[in-house]
Write a sequence for this structure.
């Protein structure tokens, strides 16, 4: 390899992560880039991150396409040092060669790309913890290309039915592995944040390029037409499946979609399977009168309307106090390579909580939660929920919990046979809090009642310990003033 060429390999993105899915490239072959300039957006099992470049120079080669899973340590991008010309790709000798290689020259795209870059210029600092240098770059590509290179859709039907001559104009605006004619990560993020499918948008830019204004128009459009278009597309896919013979052999139904299991969903599937395979879990539950907790919070809200912790923060405070009293539930069960077994205890509590995001269910954790007040817990839970839903939570924030609190009551259910968040040994679930008949001092009354459910690893403790912890939290909810006074 030439000494003028620098190969940047996919870095370690967090504890225990060995691979990442390439979501899209933020640069292209021929671009001039700077140190710490984001070059690609990748999704790990824990979060979505932008990868900054440690080198400056000219992009010579991109090692991978969008949607591809890359191993840590494998080449990600090759960069020619400044002043060194990157190796020019071979030019296909004919249209037939262009189809076979999947690459075509596309001079028509340059104007569209330049227009897009002018509209969408924005900076982004490096986001990998412990990687890169402070600050970031404020621009994307720094020089126009003399010729653009497009990627031809490799689907056999497209190659067979679409003339090669008509493909280059749109092909050059496509991200490898994606069908939507959009090149700006800002536009993709805007569409993702507002739940807009790029497949439903007709681009107004040159060669059908999807511009920011197109996404803004789609956001302001009533949902009914979009839903109708989506339904029509689904019906069309089913019809195409029937016509193409893509039928499920077991049911005889047309296959409407095949969704690869990647990113967070892949990690969740692996973690839940490992939990159910390795942990002999048991479950205990109890109904709890939360009326006193409601009344206490209502009184606090009168005094400080904008600074009152939520109910979950108070319950989290009771949980950390309970784990101090019953530390067996704040441990990890480890099996050595020689078959030896250990129960690992921790000097502290990292309290995880389940958060539903567009990417799936994730569990960020409040580090050293045992040292925080209810008000501090509330602030940290809100912060972590926000960064998790934005896909910006760090691997440490998503992978360092020692016990999980799961508030599935927000989904309108009372209880759940929860699966423990491996490698933890217990999870407490909180159901919805609703009015129910309850006996108070021998008389029937309407009270605010919820159900607490504790799933625990029977290897680390017996039912007495689990029931003692559950009862402690329940008593604290029923008598919050006394419980907080003792904490």
């Amino acid at each position: 390899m030439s000494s003028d060429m620098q190969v940047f390999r996919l870095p370690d993105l967090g504890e225990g992560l060995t691979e990442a899915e390439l979501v899209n490239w933020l640069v292209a072959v021929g671009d001039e880039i700077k140190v710490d300039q984001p070059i690609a957006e990748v999704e790990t099992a824990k979060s979505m991150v932008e990868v900054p470049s440690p080198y400056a120079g000219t992009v010579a080669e991109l090692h991978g396409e969008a949607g591809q899973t890359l191993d840590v340590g494998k080449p990600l991008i090759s960069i020619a040092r400044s002043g060194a010309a990157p190796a020019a790709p071979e030019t296909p000798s004919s249209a037939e060669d262009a189809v076979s290689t999947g690459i075509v020259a596309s001079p028509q795209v340059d104007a569209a790309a330049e227009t897009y870059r002018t509209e969408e210029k924005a900076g982004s600092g490096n986001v990998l913890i412990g990687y890169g240098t402070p600050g970031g770059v404020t621009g994307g590509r720094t020089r126009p290309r003399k010729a653009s290179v497009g990627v031809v859709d490799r689907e056999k039907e497209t190659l067979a039915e679409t003339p090669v001559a008509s493909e280059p104009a749109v092909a050059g605006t496509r991200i490898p592995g994606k069908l939507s004619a959009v090149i700006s990560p800002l536009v993709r993020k805007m569409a993702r944040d507002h739940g807009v499918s790029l497949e439903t948008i007709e681009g107004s830019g040159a060669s059908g390029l999807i511009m920011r204004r197109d996404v803004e128009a789609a956001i302001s459009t009533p949902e009914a037409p979009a839903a109708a278009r989506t339904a029509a597309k689904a019906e069309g896919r089913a019809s195409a499946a029937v016509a193409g013979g893509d039928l499920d052999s077991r049911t005889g139904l047309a296959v409407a979609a095949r969704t690869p299991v990647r990113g967070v969903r892949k990690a969740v599937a692996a973690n839940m399977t490992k939990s159910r395979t390795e942990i002999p879990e048991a479950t205990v539950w109890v109904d709890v009168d939360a009326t006193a907790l409601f009344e206490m919070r209502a009184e606090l809200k009168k005094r400080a309307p904008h600074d009152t912790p939520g109910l979950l923060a108070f319950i989290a405070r009771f949980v950390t106090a309970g784990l101090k009293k019953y530390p067996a539930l704040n441990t990890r069960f480890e099996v050595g390579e020689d078959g030896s077994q250990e129960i690992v205890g921790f000097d502290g509590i990292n309290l995880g909580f389940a958060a539903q995001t567009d990417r799936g269910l994730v569990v960020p954790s409040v580090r050293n939660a045992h040292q925080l007040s209810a008000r501090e817990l509330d602030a940290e839970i809100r912060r972590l929920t926000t960064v998790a839903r934005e896909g910006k939570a760090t691997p440490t924030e998503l992978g360092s919990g020692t016990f999980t609190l799961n508030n599935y009551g927000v989904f309108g259910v009372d209880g759940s046979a929860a699966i423990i968040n491996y490698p933890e040994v217990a999870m407490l679930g909180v159901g919805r809090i609703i009015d129910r008949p309850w006996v108070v001092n021998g008389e029937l009354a309407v009270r605010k009642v919820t159900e607490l459910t504790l799933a625990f690893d029977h290897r680390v403790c017996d039912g007495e310990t689990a029931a003692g912890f559950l009862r402690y939290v329940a008593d604290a909810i029923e008598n919050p003033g006394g419980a907080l006074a003792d904490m």
Q: What stands out?
A: The radius of gyration is 27 Å. Residues 14 and 475 are 39 Å apart (CA to CA). The chain has a mean pLDDT of 77.
